[in-house]
């Protein structure tokens, strides 16, 4: 794959220069069960600066994917304070949170979350449709990404017609196509063979060097080595 970057311009980030992109204060999430409340995250306090590359690690059930869902503004059922570019997310309505997500966030889901009734090309166009990008430019960007990920021949296929590895590539391509300010990735190379996985991580490294803030969840020490800081979770708590 030729994973050379192509820039998509966006408005400047709406925050003070010295303010972290993300500030979490006492963020907690729990589920109500017959036995009471089961906590998935406990008292999470975390600052993420713009341009950081952070890896979240920990055993299964530690709360890693849950934390990523909150950071991506997909999960609204939590307590605590969350500032994103200075915006108090915890005070915003779901519709307002969704608008921030669409403008600033790219997400590589562990289960892909491709839209089954859309083709590969149409799935790639979705993030661009949320931005102020002309249709002709969107078509050009989609064509470029299809070529870069060697999936041109798959552009008219539906997700169900793809292998797990091919769906993973489409999911990564969709996450980066609009050059998000924040890229979140949940086990981004889990379904790829080693060479594809290395190329994806090299792409993430280049995106980060170009200014994209990245938070990845991974069990891979090799993938963790691409980041500049590791956040460890255990039983919902941040641990050293």
How would you sum up this structure, described in words?
The chain has a domain at 53-61 and 93-239: P-loop containing nucleotide triphosphate hydrolases (Rossmann fold, 3-Layer(aba) Sandwich), CATH 3.40.50. It is 32% helix and 25% strand. The model is unreliable at 4-12 (pLDDT under 50). It is α/β, with parallel strands linked by helices and 240 residues long. A six-stranded mixed β-sheet has the order 6-7-8-3-9-10, with helices on both faces. Strands 2-1-4-5 form a four-stranded antiparallel β-sheet.
Features:
globular, Rossmann fold, six-stranded mixed β-sheet, alpha/beta, 7 helices, four-stranded antiparallel β-sheet, 240 residues
Strand content: 25-35%
- Assembly state here? single chain
Dominant shape: globular
CATH H-level superfamily title of the domain at 53-61 and 93-239: P-loop containing nucleotide triphosphate hydrolases
Determine the mean pLDDT: 89
Number of DSSP E strands: 10
Describe the secondary-structure layout.
Blueprint: E1 22-33, E2 36-48, E3 53-57, H1 64-71, E4 79-84, E5 87-88, H2 94-104, E6 105-108, H3 120-129, H4 135-148, H5 164-176, E7 182-186, H6 194-209, E8 213-217, H7 221-224, E9 229-234, E10 237-239
Helix pairs in contact: 3-4, 3-5
């Amino acid at each position: 794959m030729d994973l050379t970057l192509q820039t998509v311009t966006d408005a400047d980030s709406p925050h003070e220069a010295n303010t972290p992109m993300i500030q979490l204060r006492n963020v907690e999430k729990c589920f109500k069960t017959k036995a009471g409340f089961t906590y998935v995250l406990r008292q999470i306090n975390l600052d993420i600066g713009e341009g950081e590359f952070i890896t979240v690690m920990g055993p299964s059930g530690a709360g890693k994917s849950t934390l990523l869902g909150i950071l991506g503004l997909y999960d609204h059922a939590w307590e605590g304070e969350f500032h994103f570019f200075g915006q108090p997310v915890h005070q915003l309505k779901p519709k307002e949170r969704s608008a921030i997500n669409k403008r600033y966030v790219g997400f590589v889901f562990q289960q892909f979350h491709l839209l089954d009734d859309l083709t590969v090309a149409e799935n790639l166009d979705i993030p661009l449709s949320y931005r102020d990008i002309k249709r002709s430019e969107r078509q050009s960007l989609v064509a470029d990404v299809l070529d870069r990920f060697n999936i041109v021949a798959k552009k008219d296929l539906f997700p169900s017609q793809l292998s797990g590895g091919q769906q993973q590539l489409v999911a990564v391509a969709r996450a980066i196509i609009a050059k998000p300010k924040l890229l979140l990735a949940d086990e981004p190379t889990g379904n790829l063979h080693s060479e594809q996985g290395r190329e994806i991580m090299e792409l993430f490294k280049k995106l980060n060097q170009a200014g994209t803030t990245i938070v990845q969840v991974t069990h891979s020490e090799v993938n963790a080595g691409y980041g500049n800081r590791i956040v460890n979770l255990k039983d919902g708590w941040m641990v050293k």
